[in-house]
Amino acid sequence: MSTLYGRKYRGKGDLIIELGSGNGQTLVNLAARNAKRELYFMGIESNLSLYKESCSLLKENDENITFINDDFEQVISKFHNESVSMFISVLPHPNYIGKEREFNWKNFYEIMLSKMKKYGQFLLITECTNELLSEVTVEEYKKWRTWLISSFESIGFIINVTVDNPPPALSSYYLSKFNNDPNRIKILTILMGK
Ligand SMILES: C[S@@+](CC[C@H](N)C(=O)[O-])C[C@H]1O[C@@H](n2cnc3c(N)ncnc32)[C@H](O)[C@@H]1O
């Protein structure tokens, strides 16, 4: 794995992977805060121009972070089981969280779970909207949250923490956009183990 995708990753240290890393902002900020450099960050993004934007954020001496321009399903499938310390997904595409695609994405998260270390974590930040893009009621939100949590539990994840907001220390292009519309877009953060 390390030779295929992680130019600088040598299989040492805890590996943290962001799925759909967009313009790279989230991961670059996280990696910059890891002063001891004992964590290694890998962002996977299929969109070429976003991938290039991510790479433009990297500095020459950034040894603990890399970006890959590929389909994360393909990349993840090549990892050894129990090899990844943490997966992060910030506002995943509906193909990986939408109700109508549940059957498809469950298969992917099952595989992802098998790649997570025994005490690994999955940090998911996702949004609740409704079909009419009108205000999301408290009832709608609670129903959606219950459905989402039970879906991930049925895959085999253990829900450790849920917060009805994005983590304040984490930034992303889409989080900034969605934060401007709190009535129509409700953000949920879930930290899961296995
Ligand atoms: C809604 S955006 C969120 C991007 C970023 N996390 C943010 O919050 O700004 C979802 C991203 O996932 C990427 N994506 C979707 N499916 C993917 C896949 N199978 N492999 C890699 N990237 C994917 C899209 O290109 C897009 O950039």
How would you sum up this structure, described in words?
The chain has 194 residues and is of the alpha/beta class. The chain has a single domain, classed as Rossmann fold, CATH 3.40.50.150. 32% of the residues lie in helices and 27% in strands. It has six helices and seven strands; from the N terminus they run βαβαβαβαβαβαβ. It has a seven-stranded mixed beta sheet, with helices on both faces. The longest helix is centred in the C-terminal third of the chain and has 18 residues, at 138-155.
SSE diagram, text form:
Layout: E1 14-19, H1 25-33, E2 39-45, H2 48-56, E3 65-69, H3 72-77, E4 84-90, H4 102-115, E5 116-128, H5 138-155, E6 158-163, H6 173-178, E7 186-193
Parallel strand pairs: 1-2, 1-4, 2-3, 4-5
Antiparallel strand pairs: 5-7, 6-7
Q: SSE string, helix = H, strand = E? A: EHEHEHEHEHEHE
Q: Give the strand tally.
A: 7
Strand order of the largest sheet: 3-2-1-4-5-7-6
What is the CA–CA distance across the termini? 23 Å
Shape: globular
So, the CATH homologous superfamily?
Answer: Vaccinia Virus protein VP39
Cα gyration radius (Å): 16 Å
Average per-residue pLDDT, rounded, comes to 93
Low-confidence stretches: 1-7
Structural class: alpha/beta
The domain count comes to 1
Give a nutshell description of this structure.
With 194 residues, the chain is of the alpha/beta class. Helix content is 32%, strand content 27%. The protein has a single domain, classed as Vaccinia Virus protein VP39 (Rossmann fold).
